[in-house]
Design brief:
With about 100 residues, this protein is an alpha+beta fold. The chain contains 4 helices and 4 strands. It is globular and about 35 Å long.
Length: about 100
C-alpha cells in the first residue's frame, strides 16, 4: 500500500472549476485499486497552528502499489479534464508514504 497526502491550493474564484475536475477525477481512483480515505475542506477553526498557507482541501488516498498510482495519473479520461485542474489549482503539495 502507498498513501498520497495532497494539500491543494485554489486560485481565487476558481472553486467551481476545481470541483468540476474533482467530479471527474475522484471516481477514477477506484479504477486503479485506489481509495479516497479522507477529503477535507478545513475551515479557519480547523487549524491549531500553521507555518504554511492554509490549503483549500486536503486529500488522503491509498493505492495498492506505485504502479496503480502512476496508471491513475496517466488515465485517458482524467487527462481530458486536466485543463480544469490547471485552470483552478495554483499549487499543490503531494506527500507519498507508507503505513508504519
Amino acid at each position: 500500500m502507498i498513501y498520497i497526502l495532497q494539500l491543494i491550493y485554489i486560485k481565487d474564484g476558481q472553486e467551481e472549476v476545481f470541483h468540476q475536475f474533482e467530479d471527474v477525477a475522484i471516481p477514477i481512483i477506484s479504477k486503479y485499486n485506489g481509495r479516497l480515505l479522507v477529503r477535507i475542506m478545513p475551515d479557519e477553526n480547523s487549524f491549531i497552528e500553521h507555518s504554511i498557507e492554509k490549503p483549500y482541501e486536503v486529500h488522503l488516498v491509498e493505492f495498492d502499489n506505485e504502479k496503480d498510482f502512476e496508471d491513475f495519473k496517466l488515465d485517458g479520461e482524467r487527462k481530458k479534464f486536466l485543463y480544469l485542474k490547471e485552470q483552478s489549482i495554483k499549487a499543490s503539495i503531494l506527500i507519498q508514504g507508507i503505513k508504519l
